[in-house]
Amino acid sequence: MDNPIRVLVGKVGLDGHDRGVKVVASALRDAGMEVIYSGLHQTPENVVRAAIEEDVDVVAISILSGAHMTLFPRILELLNGKGRDDVLLCGGGIIPEKDREELMKLGVGNLFGPGTPTTEIVAYLEKEIAARRGK
Fold this sequence. Notes:
By secondary structure, this protein is an alpha/beta fold. The protein contains five helices and five strands; from the N terminus they run βαβαβαβαβα. It is globular and about 35 Å long.
């Protein structure tokens, strides 16, 4: 791609486990993407503010705390409220299948579980962003 995919990777809420998200961030960088890591304990408002300031294509959130049914919809609401419905919101963590389906109906992209090969995540983002860019 001409312009690298820009991804904001973040941990929202009280979840302090960041090993997995750092592995994913590293894999995305290795694949040629520009990655901004927001750090631990972010609020949805902070994540969306950073996403807009950094003009990202993707917001990728890692949630292991069980708050996914609150945090993903809130981030989506804030992005849409700022006129940034073009930003792909996706992520991963421990999210039951029923909740994944509900979140995807709301407009959240793929949600990857523990153990997902990073190559699968990279391929998904490349395909999705190419389609959004019309390539």
